[in-house]
Queue: 2 jobs
Job 1
Amino acid sequence: MCADCHSTHLKKGYDEKEERYHTTYSAINVSCEACHGAGSEHVAWAKNPNANKGTRKKGLAVDLSAFGKKRWEIDEKSGKPVRLADIDRTEVQLCARCHSRRTQLDDDFEPGERFEEHYLPSILEPNLYFDDGKIKDEVYVYGSFLQSRMYAEGVTCSDCHDPHTLKRKAEGDRVCNRCHRRVTYDTPKHHFHPKGGAGCIDCHMPPRTYMGVDVRNDHSFRIPRPDLSVGSDIPNACNHCHKDKSAQWAAEVLKKQFGEIPKGKQDFAHAFKALRTRSETAPQSLYDVLMSDASDIAKATAATHLGDYPSQQTYMTIRQLLKRDDPMLRRSALRALESFPRQLRLNALLNMADDPVKSVRIEAARQLSGLPANALSSEQKQKRRNVIAEYERTLRFSAERAESQTGLGTLYANLGKDDAAEAAFEKALRLQPLFIPAYINYAHFLQTKGEEKSAITVLEKGLKRLPDAAALHHALGLWFVRAKMPTKALASLEKAAKLAPDDARYQYVYAVALAGTNTPEAIHVLEASLKHHSGDVDTLAALAYYHGQLGHTMQANLYRQRAERLQRFTPKIGH
């Protein structure tokens, strides 16, 4: 994984049968060809420029010369920067290969090609980013930068950084002053500190330290929002310096200065929290993000939740998003589509199997593998085979990883290749005995084959290694339910619910099991969960049902009405 960025022309060469690497590379570090492509023609041009007329410019595989020229100037009237050239994403796509949190799909990337054709970039997942999109885990800049107004306006990497010296184009805030006049911005009127007392980078690119020594600046270029830190774990630039003050204090200072809290471009923290916690406001919050001027990466993150609220409205929204230019949006829409019946998915999946970007095609392939092919035309069957074969090659590229072996196991199970599926699941557990999805997917596969004893053996094996894994206790509880062993089922489901109190699904399933013998306690569990997940339709429907069973007509009707409102949800436009 590290070597893909820290060397040139790396070919991993993993042999799955031998379980050995036969890795090759052209340079042990980042050489010219890592960014500029194969250099043989450039060398020929350098030796005899006249002999290379009509071929690549200076013999380079990708022309980056435009990024070394002056691309911005300051308008004298407005004092703001003006772009002198068309927006060109070539350089950002090139840098993203290494400066991003991503999954590698192959090692065939060549400079000038589209990043998403060879890599799957991470969206704003809660383990990687805070709800406001600020960096949390090490994400290597790209996903942060995509959120920014700078990126939207056409700023590119070399506007601020020199790729050859690995330094900024100027030291400290002077790099910002190349486009934003110091006389305008380094004043108490702008930053409310004494002149020189607050820096652009301090306020708009707050740092975060990784591994104790590696300081990284957030590249979303955001307005400080201390109000978002109140009652949350979201850090903010103000309290990064004013550590002796509270976030509430900082928010009040900004409100006093501006009359209101400036919101900026990344105003989706409340929406993301609502979606993450399945709040009653989540459906509207989702559309608020999709219809805003938020970045495509933020919209792609929100779009994955469309599947949480399957309806005609969300289905139509997904179909529209499948036509968007940004591949992250298309892939997120595909993921959301998985919540819908197969008859509503098949044609869309077949269409997306022809998508120009691999990261989208393989998601279509993953879902197509689980749908029957008997109703397809011969042409459609061939398309399905081709895209599934590409998906299989992508998984095999990382065959030394438990994640890929688990994916292969599920793929082969979908295709009816039971022996291959079992071998892949076994290998996943051998490669990484602590990888929870491998246990769960393997057990599910065995259950579909009717091998119930083998399935429970797999789950119990997982729990011996991971006794506090809520997902494994939940899966074991469901096994006991199918085996008609209610006492053991209840114990396992209760364990899962207690280990993962914020998981609405685990609380719901435990309550349903509990209701068989103790309906009032089931209601108690559901109402406790509803305090944290006020928009979970299953929880609301269950509460309506169980209150009705006990003759609590008023409560039952209130919960039923809330559930029906969410199921009939129609977004308010421009509310």
Note: The chain has a mean pLDDT of 95.
Job 2
Amino acid sequence: MARSIYITSAEGHTGKSTIALGVLDALIRVTPRVGVFRPIARSSAEPDYVLELLLAHDGVHLDYDDCIGVTYDDVRDDPERALSTIVSRFKAVESQCEAVVIIGSDYTDVAAPAELGYNARIAANLGAPVLLVLSGRDQQARAEQLGTSTPRTAAEVGQMAALAFAELHEERAELFAVIANRADPDALQQTLDAVRAVQSESTPVWAIPEDRTLVAPSIRGILSAVDGTLVKGDPELLTREVLSVVVAGMSMVNVLPRLTEDAVVVIPADRTEVLLATLLADAAGTFPSIAAIILNGPFPLPEPIERLLDGLAPTVPIITTDHGTYDTAVRVMGARGRLAADSRRRYDRALGLFQTHVDITELATQLGLAESRVVTPLMFEYGLIERARADRKHIVLPEGADDRILRAAATLIARDVADLTILGEESDIRERATELGIDIAAAQIISPTDPEYVERFAEEYARLRAHKGVTLSQAADTVTDVSYFGTMMVHLGLADGMVSGAAHTTAHTIRPSFEIIKTRPGVDVVSSVFLMALADRVLVYGDCAVVPDPTSIQLADIAISSAATATQFGIEPRVAMLSYSTGESGTGADVEKSARGDRPRARTRSRAAGRGTDPVRCRSRRSGCKGENARLGRRRARDSVHLPGPQYRQQHIQGRAALGRRRRDWSRVAGAEQADQRSEPGSPRG
């Protein structure tokens, strides 16, 4: 039976969806089959956005309709029948999973003990312990506006906890843990103490501070609130948060000083001079970066203005609405933020806060989930992130002009994984990050043409390449290339590593390392590997990019390096050398080269290095291994290092389905093999 956890609260606007996302992400890291269930859906007419958010997680593979119990109307009409339906539908989901995250109802959005009581009854009937979410925000004070609200005192949070505990006890629900969410950042410890004072000492209690960016509405939310239409600007920027509103009813000279960062500017549609002045201010860089412009009123833009905007091609979203100025401003102020999978900044920030303030290991242990032997891609990724966080390094990212790199950098910063340096012009990169709605403030940005660095790097590069006749002037030109600049940072100890290749070729990325860093002692050939994330394991493939036609001795060196890389990533290396030939269907130098693979040399080196690698000679993906080879092949390892031989790339089949079929065939020949004492004629003996 699956282990389940029921997440509920005593009132609305607690940020329960953020907690549900964090719990789901944590459980997927330790067990491969995790499901989600929503006992009471928000509406039967439109999708439940909380459930959609969780189902969008990479590790969940369930249909939306299967994960819903009943509707609000069903509960109001007949609570007992609704409860029976919830139990039966939950059991269908539970049978498919090892753990299930259950998200309680929140249909009233006000404090309601009856609602918490009904959620407690559901939890008791589902046999799921309750994770209670308490709000650190004062629900009775001034209404929340654009993510701004009044915090509760620690004593008030404790009082709310006492009332909720009593309600859960009355309905015989088991309290698993408590999270005080959106708590006052300046009173986290006091909040924890207040909650612990009114419950059992054995119950885990955590507190997560308020983060305004998680609850402020996005531009997309504002667009919906004002019944607007996006007429200009970049649609990708609709996920940016809105933190203030500026009503531009004055002349442009009086509007400009009132512009604020992340503001939405409401401009009457017939005030085109204010529109143009606002766009110029946003592009100038000397004024705050606004989030969006709303043109209100039933006035179409004049054709010359339309033509001018087309020429300017502004990225800031421009929205039109027929509402009046007052109504538009009220709708903007009343819009509420939602955590959604399409807002990467919000998504990463929510997970980062959860992982920082909640003990994920204790959560999984308390829930009774043992670590799985299966390694899914998400589990593998989580392991890498945890190792990186524990052994923090400084990484340089040369491709700062690529939006994908900026988004990835924001994710790493939000999850506190590494220290980052991004190469590029600081003003351009900071401006683009702001437009994308991502936070890279913690990253260092260095221009590859910075004279101080260029002079230092040029002197070192000229020294290293003096035997090739490289002059100081030539070196100065060379090191301004971002790949050379980043490699020099690693070489001189200014960074621990470099990640590149998103916008540059493999050759452009690794050529500087040939010239500057070179190979480690005892390694004769540079090779590459890539990680193939399958459904239940991670494989290492090498070499598929750097050495197109290796000799058998080079194959052995590649095998050793690939096995060492696999070990660094926590994958037990079992090496198989593959060629394009199936069984005995092919002959020739390339097939024999892969078959020989210079195993004596490979085994000697691997044992000397203490890696325990056992290379395999096998060119068959179906039936080429016989006798002892086939018997040992059946004892396949969970993780393997595959070395495609010459011409293999021409036979490579793209797509997960094709890879799955090949994996089943390859697994028959992955294992240890007796040493082949023969070596290639003319080559050194092993």
Note: The chain has 28 helices and 21 strands.
